[in-house]
Amino acid sequence: MFKTFLIFLIALFPIYSQTTQIVLDENFDDWENAVTFNDNTGDGVGNIDFTKLSIANDDRFVYFLIGNASEINLQSNNSITFFIDTDNNVQTGYQVNGIGAELSYTFGARTGTFYHNGSESRISQSEIGLISSPTVSSKTFELLMNRNAEIDGNKLFVSNTIKVVLTDNVTGGDALPNSGGGVEYVITDNHYVAHQYSIAKRDTSLLRIAAYNVWRDHLFDESVRENFTRILNAVSPDIISFGEIYKHTGAETAELLSQMLPGTKWYYGTNQSDVHLVSRFPILSSTPIDGNAAFVVDLTRKYNTKMLVIIAHPPCCGNDDSRQKEIDHIMAYIRDAGLEKNTPIVIAGDMNFVGKAQQVKTLLTGDIVNEDTYGKDFTPDWDGTALDDTKPLTIGYPATFTWYSEKSNYSPGRLDYLVYTGSVMKLKNSFVLFTPGMEADSLTKYDLEKEDATIASDHLPIVGDFKLDVSTKAENNNVHPATFELFQNYPNPFGEAVPSGGVITTIKYSIPTVGTAHELSVRLVVYDILGRKIATLVNERQAAGVHSVQFNAKELPSGVYFYKLQYGQYFKIRKMVLLK
Q1: Quick one: DSSP state of residue 387?
Q2: CA separation for the pair 466, 572 (Å, rounded)
Q3: Which residues contact 34 (CB under 8 A, 6 or more apart)?
Q4: How far apart are CA 361 and CA 387, in angstroms?
Q5: Can the peptide bond before residue 380 be classed as cis, meaning omega within 30 degrees of 0?
Q6: Peptide bond preceding 491: is omega within 30 degrees of 0, i.e. cis?
Q7: What is the DSSP-derived secondary structure letter of residue 399?
Q8: CA 317/CA 95 separation, integer angstroms
Q9: DSSP state for residue 64 in the 8-state scheme
Q10: Max Cα separation, the chain?
Q11: Residue 172 in 3-state DSSP?
Q12: Can you tell me whether residue 454 is helix, strand or coil?
């Protein structure tokens, strides 16, 4: 039995034999098949102590994953430097740790150097197509570079064999590898696999929600009116949250939208800050929350429900404390709003998450930091779990970024979010509209031009299409699904200790209405990568509905684990990653 199950696991998750498309989406389990070089811990200084470097590629990009022993911000306050020998010749380029590097890039300084034919050229992130993720603090970062980049007419990657040195460029700083010669990687013939999305709504019953920071009232600038008009017509949202409209009212914003997207009545919410909600559905109320705002939208004519939409635009840059307080306040507002049970909730906007990762955790899980001011933690979804994060991928890229500026020394990153109550809203489609990444036929089809998105704003519009599950407006707390489903655990990867001392992740699953309640036993079991049973989380008869259970991995080592849900003769398996 054990051998049969192990063979099934390997067939379902071909860990060692199949290449996975790398996607920069703040989940790291797609790196499992990448070439990885591990580094000893305890040999760094300060908060830089490398744990590993992974490398992968396709025909468009070279990908890197950097592991560090402690949580850091990659794009600030460090001297981490990449050296890459791109021609596999130790005699050319900058001599460092036994390689001849054509490229160096220091992440904390956000600048690099290209070494060619005895000369040096200062370069920016845009010249090498650098994208890194996440923008907040982390122990793990993934990034990509343009494999076909050219600097001053000179191709960057001229050999299929590259050598990489990663250093903390301070006295006594860590290096990976510790010995000279770099880590060698051979670029293969893998092909880029584009993600699937639909600019047009696939189903008219879906509710399309968009979020768009329009850069200091640029929406009202006549010089870019055509760019915005083309973008908004292509996206054609039902509800759109706008950020950075400082000098115009909600009424003026709705009036402008009626000119750009004629043929429908646009409703608006009043607010005193820079955030504005415009909707095809009536807006019943508007409530300020610091510089953010909450709106109640009346969807009853089509979806038999109201919806709470919160638009957030907390402070930028190094203002971590104020940003955390505003996110705490937003979550406290949701906790105390007194909404009718199972009312859909959406939080959208430019979050400016460039500091501590805790702010993202608070937004999704309700883990409030300033409890003396904003009260106790809570679980914000109606089924007792975290909010869901759309994490829409950016058109034309295996990454999710919503802010882009070639002129900045910051690389593109995900600053804009669209999160929601997944128990009553099902995400059917999502994307970040990035016109430079679109193919010519798609641009023509949607009457867009190549530079529309980058001319209009430094932020990109993010879009989600949702199916509203109005059947959940029942008296009990459980959602009664029609299907048997095992969801991805959250968070994943996980490994951060909670205040109680445990290392917790939540597993959610649904038991269908087919059959009689309590008719079949439910088993949820966790296995290690060798197929050995680690823990039995559920072993009982359960009623139809959505259930969740917490798994405490405090005593387990980092690694890949599997969890199997069995319901009668049916079963499903998913993978989770523990990173301590």
Answers
A1: P
A2: 25
A3: 22, 54, 55, 56, 63, 65
A4: 10
A5: no
A6: yes
A7: B
A8: 35
A9: E
A10: 77
A11: coil
A12: helix
pTM above 0.85, yes or no: no
Domains, the chain, with CATH or none? 22-186 (2.60.40), 207-332+388-472 (3.60.10.10), 485-578 (2.60.40.2550)
Residue 20 structure tokens? 């996975």
* CA separation for the pair 423, 546 (Å, rounded): 8
Question: How would you classify the pairing of strands 207-213 and 239-243?
Answer: parallel
Token digits of residue 512: 């269908």
State the pLDDT at residue 391: 97
Q: Are 317 and 352 in contact (CB under 8 A)?
A: yes
Determine which helix (DSSP H) or strand (DSSP E) holds 533, and give its type and residue range.
strand 533-541
Residue with tokens 């990653």: 577
Reduce the DSSP state of residue 446 to 3 states and report it: coil
CA neighbor of 327 nearest in space, from 297, 306, 296, 352: 352
Question: CA 436 to CA 459: how far, in whole Å?
Answer: 13
**Distance from C-alpha of 119 to C-alpha of 151, rounded to nearest angstrom:** 12
Q: Which two tokens stand for residue 313?
A: 């635009």
Name the token pair of 416: 């804009």
Strands 103-106 and 80-85: antiparallel
Instruction: Name the one residue in this structure whose structure tokens are 């850091």.
Output: 72
Whether 564 has a pLDDT exceeding 80, the answer reads yes
Tokens 């951060």 -> residue? 496
Rounded Cα–Cα distance for residues 100 and 97 (Å): 9
CA 370 – CA 372 distance, rounded (Å) = 6
Q: 103 and 82 in contact (C-beta within 8 Å)? A: yes
Q: Give Cβ neighbours of residue 353 (< 8 Å, ≥ 6 apart).
A: 135, 136, 323, 359, 360, 414, 415, 417
pLDDT in tens, 321-344: 999 999 999 999 999 999 999 999
d(CA 300, CA 185): 57
CA distances from 196 to 210, 303, 465, 487 (A): 18, 27, 14, 20
CB 427 within 8 A of CB 197: no
Which pLDDT tens digit goes with each residue over 356-365?
A: 999 999 999 9
